Amino acid sequence: MSNFIKIGASACLLGEPVRWNGVGALDKYITETLGNYFEFIPACPEVGCGMPIPREPVRLVGDPENPRIVGRKSGEDWSSRMRAWGKQTLDDLEKQNLCGFIFKAKSPSSGPFRIKVYPEEGGQPVSYSGVGFFARMFMDRFPLLPIEDDGRLHDPRLRENFIERVFVFRRWRDMLTDGPTMGGLVDFHTRHKMLIRSHDVQSYRELGKLVAEGKRLGLPALLDKYLTVLTRTLTLKTTPKKHADVLQHIMGHFKKQLSGDEKLELLEIIANYKDGLVPLIVPVTLLNHFVRKYGNEYLAAQHYLNPHPLELKLRNHA
C-alpha cells in the first residue's frame, strides 16, 4: 500500500474557512499525523449547497428520522438544495474509491452522531441522537465505509478502531483491484484471522465458515456477504480480555519453539497487559520478536501484529 489512502473529510477540519462564522476548524492530528498516510477529499455541504460565508447557523427540525435543515432564526429551508448537492457529491465521491470519512462533530449537516433535532414549533430538542443531513445521506449511500467524527477521534480506543478499519478497507479494495478471485478472498481472510478474532470469536467462526462454503454462493454474493459481516465485526469493540485471548492463541503457535523462560516472560507480559499495567504494544512487540526469531511465516502475514503504521502509536494507549 504505497499510495496514500483516500479519505473524505469535512472541509473545515482541513482548515478551510467554511464554517458559519467564516473560520475553519483545523485539526492538526488529522492534517499532520493522519496526513502522512491519508489523502483527504474535502466536502462542505453547507457551502456546497449555496449557503454564504459567513451565514446564519442552521439546525435540524422535524422528524428525527427524516429532519429538515433550516436557518436557526429565519427558518429558511435548505433541505432540497442540500439534498440535490449531496446526490451529485456522493456520485463524485463514489468515483474516488474512498476508504472512510471523518465528519465534523455536532454539525447539523455533517455530524454523524448525537445531533440535536428540534420540533417544528421551536423549543427544546425532541432528540439528541440525530444524524447530520449530509452525514445521513453518506451513510445511507455507503453503509460499509468506516466513518468517525473529529470529537470521537480524541478517544484512543475509538481512534484506533477507526484507523484499523480504514486500513482493512484499503486492503479489501486492493484485493478487489487485483481482480476478485476465490483465492484472493481466502488469502485476505487468512491474513486477517487474528484481527477478526480480537473483535468477536463468533464472527471469526462465521466468516471462516462462509469462506469455506463460499463456492455455493457464487463469488459476487460471497464477497458482498463477507464484507457485510466483516464490517459489522470490526465495529465491535475490542477489550483487554479479547486481546489477551488472541495473544495467547498466537503464543500457541510457538509451543515447540519457545524456551521455558520465554514462555514465562510472554505469559507475564500478557497478564500485565490484561491487568492494565502495560499497553497492547508491549506483548505485540514481543510476539513480533518471536515471529522473526523463529521464522513463522503464517504469523508474519497476520495483520493483527501490524495493523497500521507503528508511527501512529495507536497501540501505545490501547
Explain what this protein looks like in three dimensions.
The chain is of the alpha/beta class and 318 residues long. It is built from twelve helices and eight strands. The protein has helices at 28-33, 45-48, 79-94, 133-141, 156-177, 182-197, 201-212, 219-234, 240-251, 260-274, 281-294, 297-300, and strands spanning 5-10, 38-43, 58-61, 68-71, 101-103, 115-118, 127-130, 147-149. It has a four-stranded parallel sheet, covered by helices on one side. A four-stranded mixed sheet has the order 4-3-6-7, with no helix packed on it. Strand 1, helix 1 (28-33) and strand 2 (38-43) form a beta-alpha-beta unit. It is elongated, with a radius of gyration of 22 Å. The two termini are 24 Å apart.
What is the CA-based Rg, rounded? Answer: 22 Å
Q: In percent terms, what proportion of residues is strand?
A: 5-15%
Number of helices: 12
Termini Cα gap: 24 Å
Coarse morphology: elongated
SS-derived structural category: alpha/beta
Q: Main beta sheet: strand number and arrangement?
A: 4 strands, parallel
Averaging pLDDT over every residue, what do you get? 96
Low-confidence stretches: none
Q: Helix and strand succession?
A: EHEHEEHEEEHEHHHHHHHH
Number of DSSP strand runs:
8
Strand order of the largest sheet: 2-1-5-8
Helix share bin: 40-55%
